[in-house]
Amino acid sequence: MNWIFEPWPWYIGGPAIGIFMLVLLSMGKQFGMSSNLRTICSIAGAGKVTKFFNFNWKAQRWNLTLMIGAALGGFIAANYLSANTVQINESLLPQLQAYGINSAGKAYLPTEIFAVENLHLKNILILLGGGLLVGFGARYAGGCTSGHGISGLSNLQLPSLIAIVGFFIGGLVMIHLFYPLIF
Amino acid sequence: MSPRAESRDSKYYKMKTIIYLLLGSLFGIIMYKSEAASWFRIYEMFNFASFHMYGIMGSAVAVGLIGVQIMKKKKIKAIDGSELSLQPKEKSIYRYLFGGIIFGLGWALAGACPGPMYTLAGVGYISILLVIAGAILGTFIYGILRKYLPH
Fold it and tell me: Membrane-spanning residues where (chain A) (predicted)?
C-alpha cells in the first residue's frame, strides 16, 4: 500500500493539470486561480473604493467553489495520500543549510519558515510580502501560473509567453540576488 | 417562475456546486501529490536543479495545447452550448513583463502561487494564511494603483 503515499512523477501530475484545464474549458470556464483574489476583494466591498472591483462576482461562484475544493483536496492528500516529505536534488542542501533551512527531505514546506512556532517578525514579513507581490503581480499581468502558464500557453497566446518570461526573471532575481540578502 | 422550475433550478445549482467542489478537490490533490505546492520544488526549479517542475508545466501545456487545438478545429462547444472561454489576451508588453516579474519575485519568496496557496491552507498550514492575506491585499493595491501603471 506504500505506493499510495508516494509523490507523483511529473508525467502524472503535468498531464493531469492539462486534462483538468480542458475539462473546465468544456464546461465553458477558464482555468485561472488568481481571479478568486479579485473576487474576494469585490465581496469584501472593494468596489466602493475603485471600480476595478465593481463587477458581478456571483458569476465567479464556480471558481470560488473550485478554490474551496482545492483546499479540501489539500486536506485529503496530506492526511490520507502522502508521507508529507519532499525529496529535492541533494546538491542544494548545503546552500539551504547556509540559509538556516535544514528541513529539506523531512517536510513538505520548510518548517524554519512555515512552522507556527517560527512565526517571528522576519518570517511574517517574508510571507506577507511574498503574498503581496504574488497578488499585485498576478492582477497586473492579468493572470498567474494557471491563467497564463497553462490556459494562455495552451491557446498559443504571446502575452502569456511574455508573462511567463517575467515570472522567471522575477523568480531568478529573488532566488539568486535577494535570497542571500534575506536569509 | 413556477415552484417546480424553481426547485429544478436549485437542484441544478446544488449539482453544479458539488461538481466544482469535486473538480477542485481533484486539483488540490494533483497540486499536493505532484509537489507543485512545495516550497522546496519551487526553490529547486529556480536553481535549475531538477526537471520535475519543468516536466509538470511542459507536459500540462502539451496536453492542453493538443486538446485546445482539437476542440477549436472540431468547433466543439462547451457543455451548455456556449462558445469556449478562449478570449485572446489584449496585446501589450509592459503589463505582462512588469506584472510577470513582480509575480515571479513573490512566487519565489513565498514559494507558492495562487492555486497551491488554497491547497496548503486546506492542509492546515496557518502561516499560509499570511501569504493569502498578502495576496488579497496586493490585488486590492493593484486595483487602486491601476490607473497610474503602464499597461
Answer: 12-28, 64-83, 124-141, 161-182
Looking at the domain assignment, is residue A115 inside a domain?
no
CA dist B20 and B29 (Å) reads 14
Give every CB contact of residue A96 below 8 A, 6+ residues apart in sequence: A102, A104, A110, B43
Q: Do B61 and A129 touch (CB under 8 A)?
A: no
For the stretch A135-182, pLDDT in tens is 999 999 999 999 999 999 999 999 999 999 999 999 999 999 999 999
The predicted pLDDT at position A3 comes to: 86
pTM: 0.95
Query: Residue A1 is part of which domain span?
Result: 1-82
C-alpha–C-alpha distance, residues B109 and B123, integer Å: 20
Interface with B, mutate which of A49, A139, A179 (most B CBs under 10 A)? A139
Report which DSSP code applies to A99.
Answer: T
Within 8 A of B65 by CB-CB distance, chain A residues are 153-154, 156
Q: Are A174 and B104 in contact (CB under 8 A)?
A: yes
For A27-178, where are the alpha helices, taking DSSP H only? 35-43, 61-80, 93-98, 111-114, 121-141, 153-154, 158-173
Task: Check CB contact under 8 Å for A69 and B22.
Answer: yes
Helical pair B94-110 and B39-46, crossing angle rounded to 10 deg: 120
Whole-angstrom distance, CA of residue A85 vs CA of residue A36: 29
Which pLDDT does position A166 carry in this prediction?
A: 98
A57 within a domain of the structure (yes/no) = yes
In A13-45, which positions are buried (b, 16+ CB within 10 angstroms) versus exposed (e)?
A: bbbbbbbbbbbbbbbbbbbbbbbbbbbbbbeee
Nearest CA in chain B to A133: B106
Q: Does A180 map to a domain? A: no
Is A178 within a domain? no
Report the domain count for chain A: 1
